[in-house]
Design a protein that fits this description.
Helices cover about 45% and strands about 15% of the residues. With about 375 residues, it is an alpha/beta fold. Strand 6, helix 12 and strand 7 form a beta-alpha-beta unit. The relative contact order is 0.14. Bound molecules: fructose -6-phosphate. One of its GO terms (molecular function) is carbohydrate derivative binding. This is Glutamine--fructose-6-phosphate aminotransferase [isomerizing]. Homodimer.
């Protein structure tokens, strides 16, 4: 059932183009507009939404963090993202105009389920983004947007993550369309960029694995890794750090690159591997220059730089010891490709150490206790 792959994780990473494609295509009508008839929330209720709170745990919460950047930009309403277990026990402010989006691959995560029950008790509507048909979380929600990633067997979540981002983007663009917050042309352009992503992920899968494998060999003895990113690269850094600790049992920390000088740079010592998610360079992306200056700072302290960057990025070529390339794409789409080499890196490092990548120690695929 691994279809020729030596682990489910490997197979599932390679299913990412299809996961995005399947999650996207059923939701576009012939004119290229988003059709969410499947979501049983009244248009009036949707239009009245004045705040979104995304809840989830682990990888699902990072997909929510990515979505925050996009949805706030498109819809111009505040989006909060919170770990479900923290949200549940802190008396959050919820009204009938708050839309709570519960993201869960399994649909059985007890922390997320308890949080959504609490939100509904307070009168808010809950929309689930879920990969498992008929699971508890979609059953107890007001509406559901399924991710069509297909069953995910490996404990470490991979294809579900890209499908969750895709589904959340569809939701955001739908709200933008409904609220007239963004011009139709811009929505169509953004959808075109999204439609191009399966091919771009495929490019990464076709070209980058040998680089990642070499990197895993070179880094086999490293005791700890830092992961840094800004904007949507920040949750990608957190996800990269989570993957590596989950399956390779390596001590990792992910943080916002802007935080470096506020503390974490003290950790940087000769040879410390530091992974940077470098935003696209095209146009006047001010964040690109800021991330590059972060790279310079840690390089000057002897760090070993691993970068995920846009093909042909000359600044990155100057400083990085290892580069995983991404094809050109808009910044908001970049998480869909940038996470791929980080998933592969975690997998390769775990395999090198002889660990079972599909069944890491101490972890279960779905966490059904609080
Ligand atoms: C990471 C991972 C966990 C899950 C988290 C939420 O690889 O597997 O962090 O993402 O337990 O699980 P779901 O999405 O099933 O609610």
């Amino acid at each position: 059932e691994k279809g020729g792959w030596d682990s489910f994780m490997d197979k599932e990473i390679h299913e990412e183009p299809a996961a995005v494609q399947r999650t996207l295509f059923g939701r576009l009508d012939e004119d290229g507009n988003i059709n969410l008839d499947e979501v049983h929330i009244d248009e009036h209720d949707f239009k009245a939404v004045d705040k979104i709170i995304v809840i989830g745990c682990g990888t699902a919460s990072y997909a929510g963090m990515v979505a925050k950047y996009a949805i706030e930009h498109w819809v111009r309403i505040p989006v909060e993202v919170e770990l479900a277990h923290e949200f549940r026990y802190r008396d959050p402010i919820l009204t009938p105009r708050t839309l709570v989006v519960a993201i869960s691959q399994s649909g059985e995560t007890m922390d997320t389920l308890m949080a959504l029950r609490h939100a509904r008790e307070q009168g808010s509507k809950v929309l689930a983004i879920c990969n498992t048909q008929g699971a508890s979380i979609p059953r107890e929600s007001d509406a559901v947007l399924y991710t069509h990633a297909g069953p995910e067997v490996a404990v470490a979540s991979t294809k579900a993550f890209v499908a969750q981002i895709t589904a959340a983007y569809i939701l955001g663009l739908y709200l933008a369309q409904l609220k007239g917050a963004v011009f139709r042309d811009e929505i169509h352009q953004t959808l075109d960029s999204l439609k191009a992503m399966p091919q771009k992920i495929q490019w990464v899968l076709d070209t980058q694995p040998p680089r990642v494998a070499r990197a895993a060999e070179q880094l086999a003895d490293a005791n700890s890794f830092l992961f840094l990113g800004r904007h949507v690269g920040y949750p990608v850094a957190l996800e990269g750090a989570l993957k590596l600790k989950e399956i390779a049992y390596t001590f990792t920390e992910g943080f916002a690159a802007g935080e470096l000088k506020h503390g974490p740079i003290a950790l940087v010592d000769e040879g410390e591997p530091v992974v940077f998610i470098v935003p696209p360079e095209r146009g006047r992306n001010i964040l690109h220059a800021k991330v590059i200056s972060g790279i310079e700072e840690v390089k000057a302290r002897g760090a070993f730089i691993i970068a995920v960057a846009e093909e042909g990025d000359k600044d990155v070529e100057r400083y990085a010891d290892i580069i995983f390339w991404r094809p050109q794409c808009p910044t908001l789409m970049s998480p869909l490709v940038d996470v791929v080499p980080l998933q592969l890196l975690a997998m390769d490092m775990a395999k090198q150490k002889g660990y079972d990548v599909d069944k890491p120690r101490n972890l279960a695929k779905s966490v059904t206790v609080e």
